[in-house]
Amino acid sequence: MTIDRHSLMILVAGPYRSGTGDDPAKLEANVRAMTETALELFRAGHLGVTGEALALPLLEAAGSTGPGDAAYEEIFHPVAEQLLARCDAVLRIGGPSEGAELMVSRARAMGKAVYTSLADVPPAR
Fold first, then answer.
1. What is the C-alpha separation between 106 and 110, in angstroms, rounded?
2. CA gap 122, 101 in Å, rounded
3. Strands (E), 6-123
4. For residue 5, which of 45, 48, 35 has the smallest C-alpha distance?
5. In terms of Cα–Cα distance, which of 100, 105, 121 is closest to 48?
6. Angle between helices 98-109 and 70-86 (to 10 degrees)
7. How wide is the angle at C-alpha 48 spanned by C-alphas 15 and 109, nearest 5°?
């Protein structure tokens, strides 16, 4: 297998809790939107990733009882920040989100590309 040198690892950053009232169905819908965007990036030749894909199983293993508890505070955003450090870019999707805006701000501070739509992401091939 050869690695396409034009392929990017892109963090998909969107709302997770914002506007959900921590309703599990709404949280799941937000995760699904980010995951579907990551899939579109993959199909375009990039590696789209989400912090949620890594953090949520860790939260379950840590015994988290829900968003905002001690395990959530320990794990959720720190996982995204560590992931961001390894990504080439961020794709910001969805509506208002303090966490997603934090990822965008940190990405810019690191000199990483920030995209606001799939159409803005350069082709991988």
1. 6
2. 21
3. 9-13, 47-49, 89-92, 113-115
4. 45
5. 121
6. 30
7. 65
Sequential pLDDT tens for the chain (125 residues): 444 458 999 999 999 999 999 999 999 999 999 999 999 999 999 999 999 999 999 999 999 999 999 999 999 999 999 999 999 999 999 999 999 999 999 999 999 999 999 999 999 96
Beta strands in the chain (DSSP E): 9-13, 47-49, 89-92, 113-115
pTM strictly above 0.85: yes
Residue 62, amino acid: A
DSSP 115: E
State the sign of the Cα–Cα–Cα–Cα dihedral 81, 30, 13, 19: negative
